[in-house]
Design a protein that fits this description.
With about 325 residues, the protein is α/β, with parallel strands linked by helices. Helix content is about 35%, strand content about 20%. The protein folds into two domains: about 40-215 and about 320-335, P-loop containing nucleotide triphosphate hydrolases (Rossmann fold), CATH 3.40.50; about 220-315. A nine-stranded mixed beta sheet has the order 3-4-2-5-1-6-7-8-15, with helices on both faces. It has a six-stranded mixed beta sheet with strand order 10-9-14-13-11-12. Helix 5 (about 115-125) crosses helix 8. The longest helix has 29 residues, at about 15-40. It is globular and about 60 Å long. The N and C termini lie far apart (about 50 Å).
C-alpha cells in the first residue's frame, strides 16, 4: 500500500489517479487544519516562546528524506568556524520515549535517542539534545552554554519562535504532486515556501530569489567494524555490491552508487528501520555491502558487522556562499 501511495505522490499514473481522488477530501481538510494552526501562532492565539539566542530552523514541506541531516551537520561545522557555539535540538523520531529530554553522546543507543540525532552528534561535534518539547530542549542547550540553536526538522514546530527558517527541497522529486497529506507528500501547502527565509534545493542549481543549491558529495568509505580502514567508491567501479538504505528516499543513495559506476543490488528499507542480522545476510555473501551513515549507527552493534565486509558511505553537504551570507546577516541582526 505504501508503494502505491508514494507512486501517486511522485510518479502519478492512471493506476494511482483513483487513489489520489479518493484521498483528496482528507488532504483538503488536513491543509485547512495546518493553515489554521500556523495562523493561530502568528496571531498569538496559540502560545509561542522566544529565546535569548538566534534560532535557525531546518525543515521541509515533504515527508521523507530531502537532505536535512547533512545540511544540519554542515551548518554546525560552519557556524563554529564563525565563532559560534551552536547546539542542535531534535525530536528524536522513533526513539522509545520522545518526551524525555536527553543529551546525545557519541556512544548513545539509537533506540534511546534516535538514529538521526546520533549521527548528527557523531559528525557535527556540537551538543545535541532530543525532546518532543523543543522549547525545553533549547532552554537546556542555552543553559549548557549554547549561543545559537539549530532546530532539526523544526519547520512545523511553531511553539518555538525562530530567527531564520530554511526549507530543504529534494531537487529530483521537488514537491511531488503538490498536494497535502494523505493524497500528496506535503505537511503544509506549497505556498508555505514563500514565507521562509531560504529554500535549499538538494542537488539542483537554481536562480530564484532566496533559493540556494546544495550538493551532497560522497566521502571516503569506512568499514563499519573498523572506521579507521578506508576505501573509495572508485575502487568498486564496475563491481556488484549490496546497497542497503533505510532512509526517506533510498533511491537517492542508489543513484549515487550508480553514478560512481557501481552495479548495486538494491535493498530498500523503510525510514528509521531497526535492522536485525538476518535481514543483512544476503545470498551472495561474497559481494561487499554498502550502507548509509544513518543505517550504520543502528548496525554497528550487530554480529553481522564482524561476519562480512560492510562499507559505510558518508556524504558531506556543500554550503552555498549566498546562503552563508544570508544567515550571517540574519543572525548578526538578531544578536545586536
Amino acid at each position: 500500500m505504501q508503494r502505491w501511495i508514494e507512486e501517486s505522490w511522485y510518479r502519478g499514473s492512471w493506476r494511482t489517479q483513483a487513489l489520489t481522488l479518493l484521498l483528496l477530501p482528507l488532504s483538503l481538510l488536513f491543509c485547512l487544519l495546518v493553515t489554521l494552526r500556523r495562523w493561530g501562532y502568528r496571531l498569538s492565539w496559540l502560545s509561542s516562546f522566544p529565546l535569548s539566542v538566534p534560532i535557525i530552523v531546518i525543515g521541509n514541506l515533504s515527508v521523507g528524506g530531502t537532505g536535512k541531516t547533512p545540511l544540519v551537520i554542515a551548518l554546525a561545522h560552519w557556524l563554529r568556524q564563525q565563532g559560534y557555539h551552536p547546539a542542535i535540538i531534535s525530536r528524536g523520531y522513533g526513539r522509545r520515549d520522545e518526551s524525555v529530554l536527553q543529551q546525545v553522546s557519541t556512544e548513545s543507543d539509537p533506540a534511546e535517542v534516535g538514529d538521526e540525532p546520533l549521527l548528527i552528534a557523531r559528525e557535527s561535534g556540537a551538543a545535541v539534545y532530543v525532546c518532543s518539547d523543543r522549547v525545553a530542549a533549547a532552554k537546556e542547550a542555552i543553559r549548557q552554554g549554547a549561543d545559537l540553536i539549530l532546530s532539526d526538522d523544526g519547520l512545523q514546530h511553531y511553539r518555538l519562535q525562530r530567527t531564520v527558517e530554511l526549507a530543504v527541497v529534494d531537487g529530483e522529486r521537488l514537491l511531488g504532486n503538490r498536494l497535502c497529506l494523505p493524497a500528496g507528500p506535503l505537511r503544509e501547502p506549497p505556498s508555505r515556501l514563500q514565507s521562509v527565509d531560504a529554500v535549499v534545493i538538494n542537488g539542483e542549481q537554481t536562480s530564484e530569489d532566496n533559493h540556494f543549491p546544495m550538493l551532497l558529495q560522497p566521502q571516503p568509505l569506512y568499514r563499519l567494524d573498523n572506521p579507521q580502514q578506508h576505501s573509495d567508491l572508485a575502487d568498486l567501479a564496475g563491481k556488484g555490491v549490496h546497497a542497503v538504505a533505510g532512509i526517506g528516499n533510498p533511491q537517492r543513495f542508489f543513484d549515487l552508487l550508480r553514478k560512481a559506476k557501481l552495479n548495486p543490488i538494491l535493498h530498500p528499507f523503510s525510514d528509521h528501520h531497526q535492522y536485525n542480522n538476518d535481514e543483512l545476510r544476503f545470498e551472495d555473501a561474497s559481494l561487499p555491502l554498502l550502507m548509509t551513515e544513518k543505517d550504520a549507527v543502528k548496525c554497528k552493534g550487530l554480529a553481522i558487522a564482524k561476519e562480512r565486509t560492510i562499507w559505510v558511505v558518508p556524504v558531506e553537504a556543500e554550503l552555498d556562499r549566498g546562503l552563508q551570507q544570508l544567515l550571517l546577516k540574519k543572525i548578526n541582526v538578531e544578536t545586536r
